[in-house]
Every structure is written in C-alpha cells, then in structure tokens.
Backbone:
C-alpha cells in the first residue's frame, strides 16, 4: 500500500487532536500538514495547543514542530501539500459546507467529521462495515463539482455507532421500529471536566440537534443509490432521547426493538448474528478495523463505559443485556467510543476504505 500524505483541518480542537494521535505510526498515512483558524496560524502545533491538549497521550513528536496553516487563507497551499485531508472544524454549518467544497474543488479529497454535508444527497455518509457501497456515489458528486480527484465523504453522528451496528444484521428479520436512549460523554461536546466543571456529578437531558440526528441519520446509512443520489430508507422508524452524562469518553445506548409480526428471531439467533457479523472493513483487513466488530457480554453488568469503551483500540462495539421486553420484542445495551469509532477513528477507517477502493490516490 502507498504512503499517503495527510492534512488535518481543525487540528487544534478535540477531534482534531484525536486525528493527530491516530496518525502516529499509522501504516498508510503520514501527517504532513495541520490547519486551524487564523488565531493559531503560524505557530508550531505544540504552541498552538498549549494548555488545551485534551488527550491522555502526549503530542506526537511528528506534530509538535509543524507550523499551523490558516485553513481559509492557506487552502491552496494545503491542498497542494497532501493527498487528502480530514476535517473537524468548529464553524457554522454553511461555512463548513463552503470550506469543504472549496477544498474538494481544489482537488483535495475531504473526509469530514462535521455534520454540515451529511444530508447532501451525493455525499456518502459511511460506516465501513455497513454501507461501504455508498462510496460509489462519489462519481456523481465529482461530476457536480467538476473535479477529477476532489470529493467530500463524511462519517455519521457519533451516537448512532452505539446501536446502528447492532441493529444492522437484524434488518433481515423485518425490524420495524426502535426506541433509543443515549447517554453521551462530555468529549462529544469537545469538553473535559476541567473545562466543564458543571458536568461533574450531573446529567443534562438535552443535546441540541442530537435526537433528530439519532432518528434520521441511520435511514441515510441504510439507504440506497439511485440516479447519482443516496435515497434514505423509510424504515425502521426510530425515536430517540439523548442525555449528556458525567463520563469523559464513551456513548451508551439503551435500545428497544420491534420486529414485524411472525418474523421475530430468537435471542440465540440474534447473538449468533452479532458474533458472525463482518463487513468490508474486516474483509479488506483495513488497519483500523476491529477484528471482531460486535462483542457481546453475557455478564448482567456489562458493557460498562470505563471498562469497555477501549475495546479493540476503541473501534469495536460492545453489547449486552439482550432480553425480552414487555412492550417491544427485545431490549439491549450498546456502547461505542465516541471520539474513536464515533469520530476521528471512524473517519480514519473510512479514509482507509477509500484508499483501498482507489477513490484516493497518492499523488
């Protein structure tokens, strides 16, 4: 596999920092450039994040001395230095859409952690184990943009990773509807307890826009390609309630599911389907792919956020407490690491898929 030169746009924020750590010793990707807002431009990366480094591991040596570029003013320079960029910026949605499209038109593929382009109908929103085929829409997107190399691909919302992968292999039984309550860590808001002390010993029953994303984004992931667009699925119908809880990392979901009459699988069959589930990420042996995507715990008190969020380097999904329900057919608990599988790690896995499939080529 070729070595790819990688840029990170929004490299000073929490997800950007996670991208920086994931580039360290990556077998395919070489961190080449970091961009952020004008406030950080020109500073060595180490200085730009001084007092703001939120990761538990130190700043990688390869990043420390890189001079931070201005994501806006230095766009042409950055696009010329790299084979593709990850994007994790904190801006208004319309500004993000404009920025990402600008880089794409500069023939720089963008793998985005942002939500701004998730509902652009020719932008694939991909969980590599589930809907890898959606990357085929890139051909239509390139025609719209007038590009040869450039395009935008996005990863989904971090919270849906805790339940959509578990529901996916059960769709064949006629999954009709699901009720989901998510309990989401503070790093999902780009915070630490030092920066958000009011979250200590607290739970907030509202996260702006999160319930709509949790209900709608799975339907795009489960959608199909038609005439150069991704048409979202109509079912299963999902209703969601989302809470911010006092955990640093790890999004948990309590999930209730209802199947069409007469098609309900057994508990043993569900567990077997979860254990056997593999996708293109595993078949292609992508560097960041977990060997076992879905792990089921038989213990009544698992999965636990603190114990299980880092399973398979934070890229696996932990499941437990599958049992019958009095109103739905079954209920279970899911857990995913929100800044690894749910954010930067999921985007890195998507980039690996795009490289393996030839959509990103080394210059």
Residues:
């Amino acid at each position: 596999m070729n070595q790819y030169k990688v840029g990170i746009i929004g490299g000073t924020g929490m997800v950007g920092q996670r991208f920086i750590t994931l580039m360290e010793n990556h077998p395919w990707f070489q961190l080449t450039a970091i961009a952020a807002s004008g406030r950080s431009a020109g500073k060595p990366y180490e200085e730009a994040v001084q007092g703001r480094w939120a990761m538990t591991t130190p700043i990688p040596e390869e990043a420390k001395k890189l001079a931070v570029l201005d994501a806006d003013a230095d766009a042409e320079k950055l696009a010329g230095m790299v084979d593709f960029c990850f994007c994790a910026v904190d801006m208004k949605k319309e500004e993000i859409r404009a920025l990402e499209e600008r880089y794409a038109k500069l023939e720089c593929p963008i793998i985005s952690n942002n939500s701004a382009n998730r509902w652009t109908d020719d932008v694939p929103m991909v969980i590599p184990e589930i809907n890898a085929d959606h990357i085929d829409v890139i051909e239509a997107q390139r025609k719209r943009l007038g590009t040869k190399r450039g395009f935008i691909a996005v990863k989904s919302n971090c919270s849906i990773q805790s339940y959509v992968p578990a529901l996916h292999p059960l769709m064949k039984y006629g999954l009709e509807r699901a009720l989901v309550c998510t309990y989401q860590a503070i790093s999902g808001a780009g915070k630490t307890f030092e920066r958000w002390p009011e979250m200590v010993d607290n739970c907030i029953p509202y996260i702006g826009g999160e319930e709509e994303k949790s209900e709608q984004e799975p339907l795009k992931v489960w959608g199909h390609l038609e005439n150069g667009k991704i048409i979202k699925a109509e079912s299963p119908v999902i209703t969601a309630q989302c809470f911010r809880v006092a955990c640093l990392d790890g999004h948990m979901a309590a999930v209730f599911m209802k199947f069409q009459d007469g098609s309900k699988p057994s508990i043993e069959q569900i567990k077997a389907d979860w254990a056997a589930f593999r996708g293109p990420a595993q078949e292609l042996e992508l560097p960041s792919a977990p060997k076992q995507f879905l792990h089921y715990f038989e213990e009544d008190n698992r999965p636990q956020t603190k114990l299980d969020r880092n399973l398979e380097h934070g890229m696996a999904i932990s499941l437990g407490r599958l049992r019958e329900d009095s109103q739905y057919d079954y209920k279970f608990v899911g857990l995913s690491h929100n800044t690894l599988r749910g954010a930067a790690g999921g985007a890195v896995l998507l980039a690996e898929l795009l490289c393996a499939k030839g959509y990103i080529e080394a210059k």
User: Anything to note?
Assistant: The first strand starts at residue 4 and ends at 9.
